[in-house]
Amino acid sequence: MDRFLRLALPSLAVLAVLGAGVVGHAGVQTAGGSPWFQGSEACRDCHPAEHEVWLGTRHFASSRETHKNPLARKVLEAVGGDRNMKRNETCVLCHYTLEQEEAAARPTARSGPSCESCHGASSDWIAIHNDYGGPTATREAETPAHREARRRGAREAGMRWASMSYDLAANCLVCHGLAAPGLKAGTLAAMQVAGHPLSDFELVRYSQGSVRHRFYPPDLTTNASMDPAELSRLYVTGQAAALVAATGALGATADGAAEAVLAPWREAQQARVAHAREVLGALRGVPEAAALLGEPSEAHARALVDAIAGLDVEGQVGTLLPATADLK
């Protein structure tokens, strides 16, 4: 687990539906397949401060609360399948971390969304992530060249680092945005009709409150806050990811659902698109923003995020940032 922001779910978190038996995009997971999830204890010893933050989040509490919500029963009826949320192949995709002690073990829902829900199933990357240059090497003694190679290797093995802001934003929207690639819009719409809430997710608001865990050397005890310029860039990143995710969702298969059922879900996705377009339209003079608005693709979104890395966009979007009191 590296340092980023596990984003707080509502009391009944937004679900994303992908095919069973597939390791899904971003944090969405299914029983079976590789890589696999080892659970928060695999991260705790090296990241105790981050782990302590997680223990105070709704992500952590959700596994103890969500299934008791009277609304859960109605949603389960709409989804179909097992009436136990922890065994329902749809619910576990976003509400739980399916942990395994080894590759051949049966996945078990032991906690709510946790470290690997954001940073990726760790079985393939944790050994790379933990190797500072040999069995006796320490983090403090790691050479810059080895650090670069280690970070690259872990990323190629499936880890999402804190610096991968677009990947993390897109990952959040898989569940929080009801916009997972390949989802069946009819199923999600039926869940909404049954009372499942639509998330009002926005990256800065959901990441900079109770779930923030930014502990950087040399002071590993201070949970650092972002400055306005950093927040503004993160805000743009979140809107770029939202535009791509919601646009993709609107083109998803309707699964034979009636238009009356689909309409509220589509309206929510259209509203997300409209807001993202408003924000990105404020980035005048940034050609990558114009390109993304013309073609909402992942490639254009990543290009925009790269382009603003060295820019100060606070003047364009700073007034849109959520107030401190509104942070989740």
Secondary-structure map with pairings?
Layout: H1 41-44, H2 48-55, H3 58-65, H4 70-79, H5 92-95, E1 97-99, E2 108-111, H6 115-119, H7 126-129, H8 144-156, H9 165-176, H10 185-193, H11 203-207, H12 228-250, H13 259-281, H14 287-294, H15 298-307, H16 314-317
Antiparallel strand pairs: 1-2
Helix pairs in contact: 4-10, 9-12, 10-13, 12-13, 12-15, 14-15
Characterise the protein shown here:
By secondary structure, the protein is mainly α. It has one domain (41-122, 159-321). Helices cover 46% and strands 2% of the residues. A two-stranded antiparallel ribbon has the order 1-2. Helix 9 (165-176) crosses helix 12 (228-250), helix 10 crosses helix 13 (259-281) and helix 12 packs antiparallel against helix 13. It is globular, with a radius of gyration of 20 Å. The model is unreliable at 1-27 (pLDDT under 50).
Share of helix, binned: 40-55%
Structural class: mainly alpha
Share of β-strand residues: under 5%
Q: Please state how the strands of the largest beta sheet are arranged side by side.
A: 1-2
State mean pLDDT (0 to 100 scale): 87
**Helix segment count?**
16
What gyration radius follows from the Cα positions, in whole Å? 20 Å
Shape estimate: globular
Précis, in short:
It is built from 16 helices and 2 strands. With 328 residues, the chain is mostly helical. It has one domain.
